[in-house]
């Protein structure tokens, strides 16, 4: 019956010719394909093909060769070639889960020859076992049939070779005989591998954690596979009973790139028991209970009752801005704003031509005053004017001292570049009552509008956290924006940064560099800062260190150079959720006299968060160059967990109250090592929002 099923399967696969039948054929195919692995079929010159039908025929032929080569690579246990093909072809292009003429899939061959590295690579790429093996008996019968038919074919060819006189036809039969002998040995090895295998052991470890008020996260590790076949899937079961009767639910996981699973839709406050079992071609192995044996879906906000800090903030700000616009809609500034929409319709490529217009008002040199420059960069190139100058416009030629409050105001304006015209017109109306206060800010808005008009770009990017000053009395405010589009702009001049730096050195004075000279010398650092400030943390729970220092006109916060939009931090764990039980423990620790959490030795092993915090605190103290013994005076901020979206949360470690903020002139005995900088608090807040 099984033989008849396989014959029917062979007829169903008749449209797919068999692959090379010998190692030599496979090697020839490898040589033919070796130069093509990194070339997608769409890279052929389509102009040389006659019609879509011929292109599709070529594509199918090319992909069939790849599919056949994959089977041969698995059969020959060529791990390097298998990995190369999986890297450069998608599972669909390789027909990864389409059986060959023998009813086998690449994963079947790998697991029955017990080749763990190849099987693991195939599983991570999405490979599956053949659906025709519905039972142990069907797999055994199929393997026996393959071995018997291969042996019969070998005997037939051997008899023909022995009885026939030497000829070209006889030479061909000898080649076929060698190919079938090789295949016969392969099938016998697969059959032996299946017969000697046993069900897998239980997963070596199963870790259970609370992911949210309605979900649990299960992380597990591979079992020990002594004398067993490769594990191809896992089963996660959960129940409200420690006997797992009845089951509440189960899930089969066959995508093994990451061995974890999140159980969704659970009831908050209910205890769930979890166990995991592994599967191979011999069946399901014994289950492994989780550690801890059960968990209760919860979140620290369950008892606290407070809404997330950021909930509704963006909507409230939009509503407030709308109210302000409504108040001003009947003033004289309202009419000019109607023309703003039309001006935005100019394409970037057309507007950038202003850079090379002889009437542009970009400055080539700086005099004593306040200026605005916009850095647009793409890879290692920056955008320059027709005179190979960075775009610079004047804000105020009589303003030689930039007040920090004016600069911080400008950084906030950078969050609404599209509203500059509206803001400028409204400030114009207001000047009659308080011109002294708004004069500088109005000139800033005017300079921004001029820069936007000359560049034809509304979004000027992010304001660098401090202006550049020189001894000549120049102050340069810098904005940074990365151009990621691959669009080519007509007549636009992109200049390599190194070339611009070299040409600037030839005309500048090294004894008294201007603000522009300083900008070009440090431009790589500024671009690195801009790129790093947009990086995001990976999901998880973090321990942050809050350290401030004050000056006459500002408060600054200590941040790492590699991630300046986040406080100094270390990662506690990958799960960002703080459960209700963990939050209660943190509150308990905050109420004791000793700031740093301590517990009796007998309780430590029962509290994973305690162990994780101990490790994180040691790592953080080393990072910011504070002796570990000083940590005894530090405290965990216990008022709330700082949530940044759904995937990142922070616990804060605070110095003693007198040391949270270093006052001007106060000595800080523990200076952080290199790799840190201090940002104005308002700049840090804006960077965090971005």
TrEMBL record:
Q: What PROSITE patterns would the database entry show?
A: FN3
Native species: Irena cyanogastra (Philippine fairy-bluebird)
For this protein, the record's SMART domains field holds: FN3 (SM00060)
Which cellular components does GO assign to this protein?
A: spindle
Q: What is this protein called?
A: ANKF1 protein
Q: What domain of life? A: Eukaryota
Q: Any one Gene Ontology biological process term?
A: regulation of establishment of bipolar cell polarity
From the UniProt entry, list the residue stretches annotated as the region Disordered. Answer: 1-25
A Pfam family in this protein? fn3
In what residue span(s) does the Fibronectin type-III domain sit? 202-299
């Amino acid at each position: 019956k099984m033989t008849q099923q396989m014959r029917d399967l062979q007829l169903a696969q008749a449209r797919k010719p068999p692959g090379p039948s010998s190692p030599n054929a496979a090697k020839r195919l490898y040589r033919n394909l070796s130069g093509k692995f990194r070339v997608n079929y769409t890279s052929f010159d389509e102009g040389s093909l006659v019609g879509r039908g011929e292109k599709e025929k070529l594509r199918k032929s090319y992909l069939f060769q790849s599919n056949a080569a994959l089977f041969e690579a698995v059969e020959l246990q060529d791990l390097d070639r298998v990995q190369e093909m999986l890297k450069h072809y998608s599972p669909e292009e390789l027909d990864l889960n389409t059986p060959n003429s023998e009813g086998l899939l690449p994963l079947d061959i790998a697991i029955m020859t017990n080749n763990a590295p190849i099987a693991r690579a195939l599983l991570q790429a999405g490979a599956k076992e053949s659906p025709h093996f519905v039972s142990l008996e069907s797999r055994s019968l199929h393997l026996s049939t393959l071995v018997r038919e291969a042996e019969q074919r070998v005997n037939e060819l051997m008899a023909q070779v022995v009885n026939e006189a030497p000829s070209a036809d006889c030479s061909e039969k000898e080649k076929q005989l060698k190919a079938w002998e090789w295949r016969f040995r392969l099938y016998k090895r697969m059959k032996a591998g299946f017969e000697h295998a046993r069900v897998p052991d239980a997963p070596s470890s199963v870790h259970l954690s609370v992911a949210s008020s309605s979900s649990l996260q299960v992380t597990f590790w591979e079992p020990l596979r002594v004398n067993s076949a490769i594990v191809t899937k896992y089963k996660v079961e959960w129940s409200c009973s420690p006997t797992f009767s009845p089951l509440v639910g189960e899930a089969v996981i066959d995508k093994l790139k990451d061995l974890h699973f999140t159980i969704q839709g659970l009831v908050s406050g209910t205890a769930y028991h979890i166990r995991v079992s592994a599967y191979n071609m011999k069946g399901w192995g014994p289950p492994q209970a989780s550690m801890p044996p059960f968990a209760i879906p919860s979140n620290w906000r369950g008892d606290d009752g407070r809404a997330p800090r950021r909930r509704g903030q963006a909507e409230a700000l939009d509503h407030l801005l709308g109210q302000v616009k409504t108040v001003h809609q009947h003033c004289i500034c309202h009419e000019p704003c109607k023309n703003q929409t039309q001006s935005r319709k100019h394409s970037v490529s057309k507007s950038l031509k202003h850079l090379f217009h002889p009437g542009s008002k970009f400055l080539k040199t700086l005099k004593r005053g306040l200026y605005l420059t916009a850095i647009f960069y793409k890879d290692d190139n920056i955008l320059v004017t027709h005179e190979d100058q960075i775009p610079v416009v004047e804000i105020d030629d009589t303003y030689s001292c930039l007040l920090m409050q004016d600069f911080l105001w400008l950084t906030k304006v950078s969050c609404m570049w599209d509203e500059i015209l509206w803001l400028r017109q409204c400030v114009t109306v207001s000047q009659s009552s308080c011109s002294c206060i708004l004069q500088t800010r109005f000139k800033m808005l005017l300079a921004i509008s001029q820069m936007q008009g000359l560049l034809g770009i509304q979004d000027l990017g992010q304001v660098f956290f401090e202006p550049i000053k020189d001894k000549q009395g120049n102050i340069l405010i810098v904005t940074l924006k990365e151009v990621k589009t691959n669009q080519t702009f007509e007549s636009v001049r992109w200049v390599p940064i190194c070339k611009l730096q070299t040409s600037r050195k030839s005309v500048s004075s090294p004894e008294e560099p201007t603000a522009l000279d300083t900008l070009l010398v440090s431009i790589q650092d500024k671009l690195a800062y801009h790129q790093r400030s947009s990086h995001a943390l990976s999901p998880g729970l973090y321990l942050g260190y809050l350290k401030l220092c004050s000056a006459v006109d500002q408060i600054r916060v200590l941040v790492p150079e590699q991630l300046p939009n986040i406080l100094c931090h270390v990662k506690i764990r990958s799960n960002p959720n703080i459960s209700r039980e963990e939050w209660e423990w943190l509150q308990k620790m905050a109420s004791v006299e000793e700031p740093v959490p301590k517990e009796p030795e007998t309780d430590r092993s029962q509290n994973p968060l305690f162990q994780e915090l101990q490790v994180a605190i040691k790592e953080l103290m080393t990072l910011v160059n504070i002796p570990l013994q000083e940590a005894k005076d530090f405290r965990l901020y216990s008022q709330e967990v700082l949530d940044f979206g759904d995937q990142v949360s922070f616990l804060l470690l605070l110095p003693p109250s007198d040391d949270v903020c270093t006052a001007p002139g106060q000595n800080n005995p523990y200076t952080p090592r290199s790799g840190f900088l201090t940002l104005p608090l308002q700049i840090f807040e804006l960077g965090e929002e971005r």
